[in-house]
Amino acid sequence: MSKSAQIAILTLILLLAAATRILHITQQSLWIDEGITYFNISSPDLIRTLAQTDVHPPLYFALLQGWIALAGGSVLSMRMFSAFFGILGVALMVPLARVINREQTWFRHDSIPILAALMLMLSDPDVVLAQDVRMYTLRSVLVILSVIFYLRWTRHMTAWRALLWVVPSVAMLYTQYQSAYILVVQGLHALLFLRGNVRRNAIGLLALIGVLFLPWALGVAVEQRNNDFGIQAALASNWTTFVQILQKYLSSQWGLMLALLLLGTVMLIPGRGLRWRPSGPTFILVTWLVFTVGISFILNLAYPVVLAPHRLLLISPAIALLIARGLRNIRSPERLVLVGAIVVFGLAVVDDYYPKEPWDQMAASATQYSRPDDLALLELYRGDNPVTYYLDWNTQHTLEVESLRKWREYTPDQFPQGLIDILDAHDSVWFFHWSPDPTGFEMLAQTGHVQTALLTTQHVGNALDVYRFDRLPYVPVTTYENGMTLRKLAIYPDGLRVDLWWSAPQALTNDYTTSVFLLDASGQLVAQHDSFPFENRRPTTGWQPGEVVYDPHDLQPKALPTGEYTVAVQVYTYQDGVRVPTEDGAEWAVVGTLIVPG
Question: Which of 31, 67, 290, 531 gives 20 to 30 Å between its CA and that of 309?
């Protein structure tokens, strides 16, 4: 195959890698682990936060902070950081394939690097985690670089090559602890396949890598063992889990892919039959895969988070290379037909996908109505972190956010009184609730807050609820002849919005329209908004006696000349336009003034 043909094919593979990793990258909300990333990078002291609340080293989070400083903190920006490393990992399969197969003439074929890049491009776990604000694609890149430069160093020991091996090896340890598996693989390879000074120097450099990681390991990592590992998302160490991992990393056509992977451990040379003998490159690839999975199964018994499938992503490059070698053992044109089938299946079928909770929608349901002096109270377990991100992002950090979980975990000596004091300082609270725990409701009742609205986001049969709670004045604003009482109102000149709070002592038999309008100095109508209460969500025939109903009105038009305007509220029946007078007989109630500044 000519060089130009190789470049063209590899370019196409990289374009496909970019497309699969960027397409729909913002379609789903940040999920719980991504929310933890946001919590970490938002902390004023990253190292202290990781030491006290997390179980990961700092490099990824520090790099992400730098990236956000340059590219912004949107979901697209943060996920593109992972997508970049996901695409880079596909590109690095080419030098990895070339250096690892250099000793075996049969596997030095031009097709191997191309097929290895192609297999990694098609890997669904790699695609999914390239759209995740987590460290796994960065770790994969560092693992690949560590193996590449380790093998290059073993063939020609120079200080420069040693540095190129040590730097990514140390960096991957500071990115995610399970990267250490690769150093064990390299150490075993050095002991079994290297000789003399090369072996001794390799062990020495591995020791140096450990020494460079030692300050963090002793200063922080040891203490992180006592931190909360979060939601127990790991799988059990059993045969069912093994099959699930096979299906996840080899796709639903795992039988075929497993056969190709096993075939990649031997050489099937035409005319010479099957040849197998232990070799350094084959040992690295097989040990890379088997040791990572095997040790994860064992460690999972003591730390039941290790076997979470996303933590095993570092096996993907080894799988891709072994499958590429297996395809090399198949004659052409049969190989071309098989590769074509694998590509079509890989691009057409999604084997690794799960719906994430729509925290973005849940947050947006409240922030479209919230004001800077409101409080958001969260009872969502670890969903509090992604919701906090969306609340901060939607309101430019103007909305105060408090999490019941964080109060319980991080300041138990001040809970609940410290949180009750904060609730008591806010008249309006948005309560995000997805939990069987009623503590938040009890605290809001204690501070005199009354539920006035409920916004629900559905997620696979679960209701993600956002409640609005308000404190109401003892004296109502006005009462209408049909029994509707305007309990409270708030006028917001900056957004030309007027919020109303209604109640009725008895059930209402008609659906009434509420109208807010502005009159200028001459009494002319200049802005108005009419709807059933709460933007048609709470028609009056559905009210329970005594309940309070929140009713926001965004006035139209949104821009008015400078001046002072009279704010009035009327109630009428939409079908016939008949107004309901106030108790004192007025057609509408004048409730205040709105000043548009110059």
Answer: 67
